[in-house]
Amino acid sequence: MKDLAVEEILRTLGDAKTVTLRPGDVLFHEGEEAHAMYILKQGTLRVLSGSTILETVRDGGIIGEMALIEHLPRSATAIAVEPTKLSPIDQRRFLFLVQHHPFFALEVMQVLAHRLLPSADAQLSRRTPEDVINTLLNLVAVPRSRATA
User: Fold this and answer.
1) Cβ atoms of residues 9 and 104 within 8 Å
2) pLDDT (0 to 100) of residue 60
3) Averaging pLDDT over each range in 23-27, 72-76, 85-89, which range is the top one?
4) For position 87, which CATH number holds?
5) Higher confidence at residue 32 or residue 66?
6) What pLDDT was estimated at residue 146?
7) Domain that holds residue 137
8) Is pLDDT at 36 greater than 80 in this prediction?
9) 71 Cβ partners below 8 Å, 6+ apart?
10) Whose C-alpha in 62, 70, 91, 122 is 20 to 30 A from the C-alpha of 106?
11) pTM for this one?
12) Is residue 10 a contact partner of residue 39, using CB atoms and an 8 Å limit?
C-alpha cells in the first residue's frame, strides 16, 4: 500500500492495538482459523507454505486478507524476519474501511489479484482473482431496500 494510504488507514484505526513480533515469531500458521488481517506498520514478514517462501511483506503491506475475506483457514504461515509491528483489522473494521475508504478496497483487490495470479500453480487458491473480487464487492454491497429508500 502507498505510504499516504497506510497513514490514513492507521489514523482511522486509531484505537487498534499493535501486535509486536520479534525475529522468528509466527504471526499465524497455515491452516489456522482467521480472525483478522494485518497492516505492517514496521518490519518484514516472510510468507511460507511448508518450506516454500511465497512472498516477503514489508512496511505498509497487508497480510492475512484472503482468509478473512473468504472465511477460510490461513493458506500460509507468516513469520517475522526482523522486529515487526502490525495493526490487526478484524471483520468489522475491514467492512468499515472498505465502505468508507474506497482506496483501501482497491488496494486490497490489487493485492489479492497480485497474490492469486501466480498462486494457481502453487495451489494457494482454486478461485480466480475475479471470484475473490466479486466476493469482496458482495461484502460491501448496499442491500437493495436501503439503496432505494
Assistant:
1) yes
2) 84
3) 23-27
4) 2.60.120.10
5) 32
6) 47
7) 3-148
8) yes
9) 34
10) 122
11) 0.69
12) yes
